[in-house]
Amino acid sequence: MPVTRALFDQVMVPNYNPAAMIPVRGEGSRVWDQDGREYVDFAGGIAVSCLGHCHPVMVNALTEQANKLWHLSNVLTNEPALRLAKKLTDATFAERVYYANSGAEANEAALKLARRWALEVHGENKQEIIAFHKGFHGRTFFTVTVGGQPAYSDGFGPKPGGVQHVEFNNLESLAAVMSDKTCAVMIEPLQGEGGVVPGNEAFLKGVRELCDQHQALLIFDEVQTGFGRTGTLYAYEQTGVTPDILTTAKALGGGFPIGAMLTTAAIAAHLKPGTHGSTYGGNPLACAVSEAVMSVVNTKEVLDGVKQREQWFRDALAKINDKYQVFKEVRGMGLLLGAELNDKFKGKARDFLNAGADEGVMVLVAGMDVIRFTPSLIISETDIAQGMARFEQAVAKVVAAHA
Hints:
Its main location: cytoplasm. With 403 residues, the protein is of the alpha/beta class.
């Protein structure tokens, strides 16, 4: 039976509309499709493949663990999970770790913990959660309701209550609705899906102050910004703000599914035995891979290298823009960058993504107006140069088509 894109339409639920080409192999920042055609990968599986494809450190960790132990129930713990938790707590503000399999699950745990903490510490009137328009926190019904994009949560019946949305980077908007009923504020330090929009420092500090004032927890969703993506292990380190709860996934496993919620011992104490759980959360395979990824990512060499690579991307995009005048601005932190299209090309982001694929470079979009770049954190200068040369060809084609 031939495995083609047409087979997708016959056997898969149609909630995705994948590209015509099917990748079959990857190495570093290069991917090859069924026809042997090569692509430079600036997408990184949406900020997941932080060490590129098939990095030997990851392959070795997975192979070694696969020959030892794959799965245990949570009646037992395991060595990789404990080693990784120790490394995560040593490297961050956190004292306790809860494992899940994805960012949505990590966020679900964070929201449930915040509600349980508020109930037990402050009573049942303190249960409101505030989040931000255009935010994205996952696709479970709770997390998608807290996310500020109604298009993703509408049409599934009554939504979980006690959730409000305010304007990102607008402190007055938040202050106006916060009260003693607020149990938590959930925020991305840099909105990813919402268009690669960084939270400005004064705003983030103001959010922290409002949470303190109203005795509410501050939850940082670092699913996309975390694990080296912005040039520090977690983005909060660059903001001057420490959250009460932090969620992490995507790059945490470098491509192997794992998520985690990090918090303090005092807050964590409210998830007593039986209050929350995950069958696969903290499994030895995922934790062994994540531990190996962390051994590479959480080094001065790699984290400093992210800032260097950011500059290479910005320089290349500036050169393309000087020639073709397509971007209004390039924004973001580290290797989470968004090139916003100007008014002339408004709504055409997907045209650039498709043209890029035709030219042999994989990019992403963040909405209709922003082209997003989330490559490997260790992508080479050569791969950036070649990928950008291909991306320039794609831009030239789109510009010509819209002339």
